[in-house]
Amino acid sequence: MNQNDITINILIPVYNVEDYVEECIESILAQIDNRASILIMNDAATDNSASIIEHYKKHPQVDVFDAPHNRGLSATRNALFNMAQADYVWFIDSDDVMYEDAYSSVMSQLEKLNSDVLCADYVSLRGEKEVKKKAFIGKANRNLANNNNDFLDNVVANNSNHVWNKVFRRQLIQDVRFKEGLNFEDILFMTDLSLKNFKYSYLKYPVIKYREREGSILKNLDKKYVDDYLFAFIYRVENYQRYAEKDGYHYLQYKVYKRYIGLLNKIAKNNQKDLLKDTYDQYNNFFSELYLTARKALPLHQKTILDIKNSKLDKILKGI
């Protein structure tokens, strides 16, 4: 594919990010060329975000839209995607930053490989500290086929559920949407994407600086977050397509059960006894069965870890 033939839309939903959105947009404008355009939607922000992005309306490579009312991240991403017309789309959160030389690296790899999905590394911003994160297991700069859940198995193994460190061929995800009204939308999106046939590649270079902010999901727990979190992983388990006995299904069960125990432990440490009891009563039958099924098929070291996690249940539940 000729490099000049590739086009890309960068999609940015904006809601109450007045301290970060300008840096986000400027980091992108400093890198892109005439093959790219930026689509921004103000999701009825209540801070100064709207007036900040208003300044970019006159930029020839930026289109700014206003949502009719606050609809949430998933609905805003879906609305932006519906307006996209380029070959590829890249969802970037408005409080993050495009890493230096990320754009040219991404476009160069897409030119060479014509991948349907490009996966890349990222940098985590923790205050002033930058931590590089590897987000793929395998060799870089070559196409892989999503056969027998290979893509999802890789996502599960390295916990890379994010959409913002990936670039997608627009036609591939025409019928994949972010589930509106739910948190952990990226986990659900990746599960739905994994059911399709496509070729994907790994760019061994960070493309995003991801800002870890206070108040992110799971730091302040309530029932909706707990329900959405567990639903996302139950959905993944239930939609995993089995092709053979020796696939990644039992490893997925193993990882999901660990997340369940970790969540219960977090709720207990927060001393949220009512939430802990409700969560256990509602979900433990499913996760107990998952534990027993996974345990039968796992190698010894993973079975041992799973047993250790399971043994913590009594301690976690003490006092409820």
TrEMBL record:
MF terms in GO: hexosyltransferase activity
UniProtKB keywords: Glycosyltransferase, Transferase
A Pfam family that the UniProt record links to this protein: Glycos_transf_2
Keyword rRNA-binding recorded: no
All copies of domain Glycosyltransferase 2-like, residue ranges: 10-136
Taxonomic superkingdom: Bacteria
Listed name of the protein: Glycosyltransferase
